[in-house]
Write a structure and sequence with these properties.
CATH superfamily of the largest domain in chain B: Aldolase class I
Strand order of the largest sheet of chain B: 1-2-5-6-7-8-9
Structural class of chain A: alpha/beta
Strand content of chain A: 5-15%
Shape of chain B: globular
Radius of gyration of chain B: 20 Å
CATH class of the largest domain in chain B: Alpha Beta
Number of helices of chain B: 10
Helix content of chain B: 25-40%
Largest interface: A-C, 38 and 32 residues
Number of strands of chain B: 9
Number of helices of chain A: 32
CATH topology of one domain in chain A: Anaerobic Ribonucleotide-triphosphate Reductase Large Chain
Strand content of chain B: 15-25%
Number of domains of chain B: 2
CATH class of one domain in chain A: Alpha Beta
Number of strands of chain A: 20
CATH architecture of one domain in chain A: Alpha-Beta Barrel
Helix content of chain A: 40-55%
Shape of chain A: globular
CATH architecture of the largest domain in chain B: Alpha-Beta Barrel
Order of helices and strands of chain B: EEEHHEHHEHEHEHHEHEH
Largest sheet of chain B: 7 strands, mixed
Distance between the termini of chain B: 44 Å
CATH topology of the largest domain in chain B: TIM Barrel
Oligomer: heterotrimer
Amino acid sequence: MPIALDDLSLKSVTLDKLLRLKKLRDVHFKTRPAVCTELPLLMTTYMRRMDNASDSQEVRAAKRLKYVLENKKPLIQDDDLLAGTTTTKTKGMVIYPQFMGQALWPELETLPERSKNPYNITQAEIDDLNFKVFPYWMDGTIQEVCRKDYNNPTCQKIMERLVFFLGTKAHVISHTVPDYEVVIEEGLDSIIKTTTAKESTETDHKKKDFYKAVRTVLEGVIAYAQRLSKKTAAMAQRELDPVRKEELMTISKICERVPEKKPQTFHEALQAIWICHVALHQENNNIAMSLGRLDQMLYRLYSDDIKAGTLTPEKAVELVGCFFLRLVDHVPMSPETGEELFGGSGSNQAITIGGVDQNGKNAVNELTYVLLRATELLKVRDPNVNARYCPDENPPEYLVRLGEVNITTKATPCFHNDVEVIKTLLAQNYTEKDARNYSIVGCVEPVCGGKTFGHTGAIMLNLTSALEMALFQGRHRLTEEEQVGPKTAPPSEMLNFSDFLNAFETQLIFLIDQSVELNNMLGKTHLKVHPLPLLSALTKGTMDKGKDVLEGGATYNASGAAIIGLSEVVDSLCALKELVFDKQETAFAELIKAVENDWQGYERLHQKAIHSENKYGAGSREAADMTKYLLDFLHTEYQSRENYRGGKYTVGYWTMTTHAGWGVLTGAMPSGRRNREVLPSGITPVSRQAPDLMESLGFVANLDAKKIANSHALNLKYTPARDPAHMIPKFASSVEAFMKMGGLQVQFNLIDRATLKDAKAHPEKYPNLLVRVSGYTAYFGDLNKYMQEEIIIRAEYDLDTGKEVW
Amino acid sequence: MMPEKFPLIVDIGRGSTEDGPGVRTTVFFKGCPLSCKWCQNPETLDPQVEIGFYPKDCIGCFDCAIACSEDAILPEANVRIDRSKCARCAQCADICPGKGLRRIGNYYEVEELIEILLRDRVFYETSDGGVTLSGGEPTLWPGYCGELLRGLKANGIHTAVQTCGYFDYSAFEKELLPWIDLVMYDIKIIGPEEHRQHTGRDNKKILENFIRLSKENIELIPRVPLIPGFTTSEENLSGISNFVRAGGIKECSLLHYNPLGLSKWEHIGKAEPELPRCLPQNESEQSPGQP
Amino acid sequence: MDWLLYPWRKTRHYFIKRSLLKSLRDEAAEEFLKILLNFMTFSFLIDRRLRKNIEGFNGLIQFKSKDNEIRVLAEFKNNKLKQKELEPNESLKVTPNATVIFKNAEALMNFLLPRGGQEGKKNRRDILRSLLRNEVILDGNFNYIYRFGYLANHLQLQLAKAFD
């Protein structure tokens, strides 16, 4: 890939030169998000007046979406180069009435008064939702249809206690990367041609309906683009400023062509993707809908334009910047204490850059650096930028540049090791080309963009609750006397550690079974209530199979589980084994009493637990073996279960913000943990238990990546150096070493504890401070206090000494 | 008690970028022939095991009193060990649940230590780093260190030694020199009398060894700790500069004083040496300078 | 003939409002649930605009304490709210759309009145938080609870305005 940039950092491209971006960015940060009722009103109106119940579900869904797209307001923000908006608001909260929009019902009138993340809403909008929208969908949400169809199943009831596991399908299924490559390389009309041909020859009426549905929704997308084209043309007519007039006319022409036709310029390609993205968000929840390898997909057009002299790197940064600022025009719906579990999350749309191409060769190109410059200049939480890095294949200056951007933004991009990720995907039966072409969904999860339907965030399992239930015979301290899991042996009857492990495995298998059963029920319900013709149209495999992605239409099928609390559970199992069985420092019953009393009155035992040498990430053989055992167990158990569309379950270790929320609900543990302390994030060691940076990097790097098919988030903080230039090589070499030892994923906050503490105390001094949570980036001020506290106490290492800083 | 012919190790510092090029793991040996008043690591002076007491971590369980066979445990808040009675068996530290009492100094077999040091190999390779022997004074154990360094070289690891220069040259030359890539050599005070006064030893041997070493085919970096009131006089610095230049060495590192060492004395039950007051703290960083 | 009852209802409403406020203030809320439902019942009867919130809403919500000592049914039907106290072991003819099981009166109060009584914003609670803390367990269709949550919140806001 020839790179002609004189300066890979593109230092001469600044916001002061790109005033448009500066302005759009200011608008973004100054605008308080507002609830948008356009989508739920259009859907409800359609369902009340036009829906034809004799159509198949697939066709009903398609017609409904087409109606939405045909009636959605065609809008463009002032000064923007890309037309189309997710909502009618500058920054809109999207309400999906078929998912869990009703969760907002109780607080409609108090939304603007929320202490964290307030939202604007007008009285008319409250009335629309309260009188028209929500009542209509009361029995029609996926959550409630599932409950009814399966007769209020136990698995759903357990999930709704919220402390054991979360099944997210009733809320969002679209943790995926749509096939935007086809949009760029062919245009939607080529899919329409295919689907129309199939529709006319297909004899199976179900498949025929599927093809009809695909055609219908694509027509809807094109209709939306045409309306944008007309709207911008009309605006151009009225525009007095000749420069803007010209821009609007260009945009109008672009929207007339794309996404229907194959884009011919870089600008057209970005516009085509954006229109499809907007359309997809009318069908799918706006959480973690990811974009794939932008620097690969768009490179051909970028380089054609550069050669033709119609584009410069600076202009490309501007266009990419406009695109990034479009991606933040919407926020996900979250009830006030949804903040507790998922607080401060943006829409978490991942993009992927760098890495190798389908032949395993370096794929870093000029556009990679353009995307990095836009990331660095804008410092917005979306898109979540994921850098693929292949040691020995990608050039060292690329790694240096990634380090530089991390230091400037303090939190992004995160790093994925091509060697290990590709190995992992091959083990999941991907072809070599598809594995090499992986991109990231949501937080950290690798899939083959456009070919995998792998709802990677389907299940979030609280591993500490399995331990809790093993300690308390199937009960949990939070849910008190209720017998949630199977009644396993009491501690007094456990003669050795393997007796305890048996109980632990029994409880864990119970939770795995429940989480899988619920996910499968919700998946089937989703297909029944809300099929996804548009997402299916933009996923490879569906056309050949004639099936919706929810039915297994995609080339690759999987569902993802994320495990919360791994290092805590390792430390606890090790401490329990050591204190009760190996060294017999205490009777098991005493240890249980100690954790029930939050270690009050058990100071000696508490100290022994804390100072045990068998800690995750601290060079202990015992802890390494225990971790391996857990990874193997979880991987084997989940992989042996099939989802509702013939795919397997994969296991990952990333936590978003659930570790903070669940930490508050979790009691003291044998590790020495006290009541209510936040749990460690992702696959990260417990703070203060892994004092050596190299040891903890090595510990995580040595885990078998093949058992972590849904990837992990290793969250570290490095103390920023006074002189960034001094820090970059050290930073880069730590990442390089981690990857060469077999590390899968790592991400950083380059900010010290004192600054974070100050930001917590004086949020006004740090507006829009970007931090990495566990997977995604967020603004520190948006996070709830537990999450802020977790980031503050999260292990911080000094690259000069290699030691954890306290 | 461990006899002195076995070296004890105070700490294995992994991931430092301050003890030589790249990312390094530094082995801190216990025992030093000098006794500089400003010593930052007083726990590395005595070659024998010591017991440190850290009152903050003490939970007051007095398990130590039960473990001690010499009746050396005191009930005071800030002093736990009667050093005159203590036999340094470290039983108290081994049993202490909160690590308020800690054993300072552990013995490692050479192979065991090499295994630990090789764990960070990838970090050395990606950063052009390696292993540094420091202390205390590693050259006190030429046989042990020689074996250690040879083992590291056999694995292709870059090796460095930090020394105060007070060693027997022939043993050093025979056992250590063949396996060393870099020597960081402290020259503290040029005047013999002041040197004796503040470090407890004459500097003749140190300066002679330096001259001999400067003729060897290895990288040699002289280092001057900047201790206000001791080493920072213009006379001393220019004297060192002239001496070093005479040995044909052009570059010299200046080490900033870290007053952190001061509080460490009381943990091991030793009186803190008197130092001039108002020592500067956190001066701006300086890169290796020209003397 | 309904209008004939209006003055009586209005007066009744006033007294119930007063006792509701008192029970909120005292935080000794054994009677709180009954008073709240009473208050809602009368509010719907006297306030036409408010009544619009439950037009066409048919639903049965059961509230019960964990020890089964308190059991109350709230029935929305014919644009009215009716409440009925149940004996601890009384069986139900119709399955409620949703059941709210609360640990104690305080938990219920936090759950139903997210603005935390007279303390206003200080103790902001919401349904999800109560669930997270295991103070309240929901069984059945969550959307009925959300709707009820809206009504309770709405009434509390009006109450706050009236006494500001």
